[in-house]
Design goal:
FAD/NAD(P)-binding domain, D-Amino Acid Oxidase, Chain A, domain 2, 21% strand, NAD(P)/FAD-dependent oxidoreductase, 8-stranded mixed beta sheet, alpha/beta, 527 residues, 3 domains, monooxygenase, 36% helix, 14 helices, Flavin_halogenase, single chain
Length: 527
């Protein structure tokens, strides 16, 4: 903790939360305005383990190039080799039997698998080196918001010592505590997306490259010329998926995310058994977990993890990262969200310190992030868990999602460098067509998956089907590949239209029941 006399408890900016979202926002403010009087309040004595360990292209660029952390990332963390998906069905008995979608070679634009304990500590230290005042451990007790005036934060230090801080701006980086959002009644669960998650860290998870050299796995191991081990490997099931993320200390982060409309557990089942049950439902689960040991005290559960906010800023406050909203961990978008919210917040705060009238800028900020969340959800995630477990559908969906990400998000940022960071994905008016196309495609895939599930054809190609692909680039081939995927999607719909449910096929599965016992609606069309 930094000790300062009472007369110095007036600041320009108070940042609540010192981990990635808070520190990255503070660091951007301090680099643009070195003389800014900025204070960070961090509740923990030391950073513990946390999820959000996997970057993708945008967040890797943000951390490496924009925050200038490339040297730290390359020395302290692992180079990530893309996303890889493994599917199975009743014919699959082990990992080598599973269908696979993933890069054939090492990816063109690698990102990072990060240890958040190390990364967050590095960023917070850089903030202190840049002049930030740090109170740690510090518990925020009350926030007084005064639109256009001074904001007040009442907090408590060890030994019950109380502090009252005043600042023109507060940055809420409190994570899922969402202090300002809950105080103002702005946070709402995304009821259209009832997903929950269980996760832990494990030791004893085998190296994927070594698995490929075992007797019986040689063909499976040699069909991929790049590295499986340092990518994010996903075990895909009907209504759920499992992530496996290697960490630099030798542990592996393993977590399950599931849609409560498709997956339920009997009462009394422990969290550990729920996680292991989902892992072992997959044909590769037992093989991967044969010698695994869960790290002590590192099992976590969050129910209905998707939520949003009515507003993301006011005249004197702004939210970043998970304190603003959370959508879904699939495709690892969390750090991208941190990149966009923290950059836009830092620019808004600096403008607010300089200008008296920024209401239009605040309105634009709220419109941008509200549109981004809503469109991002409609385009990519709505009802996606209904077809996650079918390789043929997910192969097209993933390639299209990734290609559109490169076309509409990654490429503009690379070309404009730092100019587009304050406009989050899908917030532009011209993104409406892409959102419409992706949302319509998702809805059609859900219908196909439901038909297949009802007729017993769901996941028929999951056994031993290998669908490799090469990394996307920014040249003319990107649009050509997307056009080809649109044709594949159309072809799948045409073929599916002529499929008839075989006699004696299994009926449409009954909707799972919630804890109160009533049936949940099964598809979006009935909700």
């Amino acid at each position: 903790m930094t000790e300062i006399p009472p007369q110095d408890l007036n600041f320009d900016v108070v940042v609540i939360g010192g981990s990635l979202s808070g520190s990255s926002t503070a660091l951007q403010i301090l680099r643009r305005k070195p003389k800014c009087r900025l204070c960070i309040l961090e509740k923990s004595t030391d950073f513990g383990r946390r999820v959000g360990e996997s970057t993708v292209e945008v967040s890797a660029y943000f951390l490496g190039k924009h925050l200038n952390l490339s040297d730290h990332l390359n020395r302290k963390h692992l180079i990530k080799q893309g996303l890889r998906f493994h599917f199975g069905n009743h014919r699959s008995q082990r990992l080598a039997d599973c269908g696979e979608v993933g890069p054939h070679y090492n990816v063109r634009m690698p990102s990072y698998q990060v240890d958040r304990t190390i990364l967050d500590a590095e960023l917070l230290q850089q903030c202190q080196d840049s002049g930030a005042t740090l109170f740690r451990p510090c518990t925020v007790r009350e926030i007084e918001l005064n639109e256009g005036g001074d904001q007040v934060v009442h907090c408590e230090l060890p030994g019950a010592e109380s502090l009252t801080l005043r600042a023109r701006w507060i940055v809420d980086a409190s994570g899922r505590s969402t202090l300002i959002g809950r105080k103002l009644g702005l946070i709402h669960p995304n009821t259209e997306h009832p997903i929950s998650s269980i996760w832990a860290r494990f030791t004893g998870i085998p190296n994927w490259e070594e698995l490929g050299r075992k007797p019986g796995n040689i063909q499976w191991g040699s069909r991929v010329h790049g590295l499986r081990d340092t990518g994010t490997n996903h075990l895909m099931g009907d209504g759920y998926w499992i992530w496996l993320i290697p960490l630099s200390n030798g542990e592996t982060s393993i977590g399950a995310v599931y849609d409560e409309r498709l997956i339920s557990f009997p009462k009394g089942v422990s969290l550990a058994d729920r996680l292991l049950d989902l892992i072992q439902r997959h044909p590769g689960g037992n093989e991967l977990m044969a010698e695994a040991k869960m790290c002590e005290g590192d099992l976590h559960f969050r129910r209905k993890i998707s939520y949003f906010s009515e507003k993301y800023a006011g005249n004197g406050w702004v939210t970043v990262g998970d304190a603003a909203a959370f959508l879904d961990p699939f495709y690892s978008p969390g750090m991208d969200w941190i990149a966009f919210t923290s950059n836009a917040a830092s620019r808004l705060v600096l403008a607010g310190l300089k200008e008296s009238f920024i209401d239009q800028r605040i309105d634009r900020h709220n419109e941008n992030f509200s549109a981004s969340y809503e469109r991002w959800f409609r385009a990519i995630y709505k009802d996606k868990y209904f077809y996650l477990g079918d390789l043929q559908i997910m192969d097209i969906a993933f390639r299209t999602d990734l290609g559109m990400y490169y076309l509409g998000v990654v490429r503009p940022l690379m070309k404009a460098r730092s100019k587009n960071w304050n406009r989050p994905p899908f917030s532009h008016a011209k993104a409406k067509r892409a959102v419409w196309f992706l949302a319509r495609r998702n809805a059609r895939f859900v219908k196909i998956a439901n038909r297949r599930r009802a007729s017993g054809r769901f996941g028929q190609l999951n056994h031993q089907t290998y669908r490799p692909f090469d990394s996307y680039g920014f040249n003319w081939t990107l649009k050509m590949r997307l056009a080809y995927l649109a044709l594949r999607s159309f072809g799948l719909e045409i073929k599916e239209a002529f499929k008839r449910s075989p006699k004696g096929s299994s009926p449409t599965p009954k909707s799972p029941q919630n804890e109160q016992g009533y049936e949940l609606q099964k598809t979006s069309e009935n909700r």
